[in-house]
Amino acid sequence: MRRTPSLAALLLCAALACPAFADEENGLTAGDATLVSAFDAIQDRALEAVAIGPLAFDAISALATIDPALRVEQLTSRRIGLHYAGRLATQYPAPAADDPDGWAAIAEHMISEARTLSPLVAQADPEHVRAVMMDAALAHLDRFSRYAPPTEAEEHRANRSGFGGIGVRLEPHESDITLLEVLPNTPASKAHLRAGDHILAIDGQSVGGLSQDAVSKLIRGPVASAISLTIRTQGQQKASVITLTRDHIVPPTVALEATQDGVATITLSGFTEASGGEMFKALAALSGHRDLKGVILDLRGNPGGLLDQAVAIADLFIAEGPIVSTRGRHPDSLQAYEARPGDLAERVPLVVLVDGRTASAAEILAAALQDSGRAVIIGSNSYGKGTVQTVLSLPNHGELTLTWSRYYAPSGYSLHELGVLPTLCSEGASSAAEAQALLDGLDAPDNTLPAQMAVWRASKVEQTELRHRLRLSCPAENRLTDAATKAFDTTLARRLLHDDALYHKAVSLASGQNLQIPEAKTTSSP
């Protein structure tokens, strides 16, 4: 991502006596390198081309949010000035609009100058100053591009890749911590800790009244490091001290429920580095069920995550053909992913549940399964996040999440601001009569789903008004708000999976493919 600093930037910095380009190894100090790296990435990788000049100017102008007495002004086409308390304090030659290094040098010099002029800026945490500037710069881009300071970025990395910990979910109280869940095969489970146990102290420090973040910082640490817990187990008055060794913890995202009437339910809550492997294990556990009639894959409320894991999970269900493609300005953003033959669940009937909070990688998975004729989608329209973000580590250990491509379903349509249209739209439905009406509609001679899907797939990203109207055909809805709506989708899926002919009819209607529909063979509903 880093380029050699431009000659103009070097001359500019030399003229201003600015502190940039001082680090012998990286060519920059850590602070300077962060802005340069961010500006470079935006210029090279952002989905839409953007001029760095206006973006950087707004970033510098954001210093006024820390001290309103500061004001940055474009004095002429070639000079910018910094005002303080209504007085022009200093001025600088403006770099070219496409010179990220030059603008980063100006930004760093203005920060330095602002610190000498403004007590508020001088007292501000340098990371807060940088975050304010980065937020202003990224306002030029889309709503999914964002900056995470080092502490927040560390949390994001832990969510994606795991962290050193003991494997518990907990709830802080005024006097102690209550364990809500103990994950299997973790240091906590091996020490026989259980939900309902209480932690009184960590490494001798009382935890009463601490926040969730403060407790997490105490529990997490390097893998293989020791942690001492003062524990009071359920039903015991006397506390004991135990020592655990932290392990690499990746919060589970796949939950396999007990099979009922030949139908298994798998809930997928996100996409971390371990999600593909978790799904493989869940499907392997089902492979011994001779009477397995189908699988319900619940993606409701799934906010997405790692693209490669969505591809890996789709590949477990799809025998061959495209899964997703991505396209952007940067050459590395041009990717196409295909299914490989020989996976576990390629012939198992599948119903996927989605709702208005099913987003990003979850939508990729749902669209791939629908377009390939592999699954029936039930629920409401999904979120409609059709862009891919690349996460770039910055020299200050923060992260820049930058939208750099759009993804396209196997049939070729972009999900951006559109989403996935369910085969059976359950929006607003919760009664048995409504479930029967939806199933009866599949066999209706005037079923309009194929025509709807054709218009849906033919719509273009730039047809924003059309896409808005299309989404209204099955409005996005949170289907997990209450027990009735949550159970409705699952019950509808079970009834469909118990009717082979109706299931294949639904698959054929939505996929746009001429799939062979088997002879009717109906079993009793669960």
Structural overview:
The chain is an alpha+beta fold and 526 residues long. Helix content is 35%, strand content 22%. It is built from 17 helices and 22 strands.
In short:
The protein is an alpha+beta fold.
Keywords, separated by commas or semicolons:
526 residues, Pdz3 Domain, 2-enoyl-CoA Hydratase, Chain A, domain 1, 35% helix, disordered C terminus
Query: What is the first-to-last residue Cα distance?
Result: 56 Å
Largest sheet descriptor: 6 strands, antiparallel
Which spans have pLDDT < 50 for at least 5 consecutive residues? 1-31, 514-526
Number of helices: 17
CATH class (first level) name of the largest domain? Alpha Beta
Classify the helix fraction into a percent range: 25-40%
Can you give the mean pLDDT?
Answer: 88
Class per helix and strand makeup: alpha+beta
Question: Could you say what the CATH architecture of the largest domain is?
Answer: Alpha-Beta Complex
Give the count of structural domains.
Answer: 3
- CATH superfamily placement of the largest domain: 2-enoyl-CoA Hydratase, Chain A, domain 1
Say what the CATH topology of the largest domain is.
Answer: 2-enoyl-CoA Hydratase, Chain A, domain 1
Rg measurement, Å:
27 Å
* Shape, per Cα inertia axes: globular
Report strand %.
15-25%
**Structure summary, number of beta strands:** 22
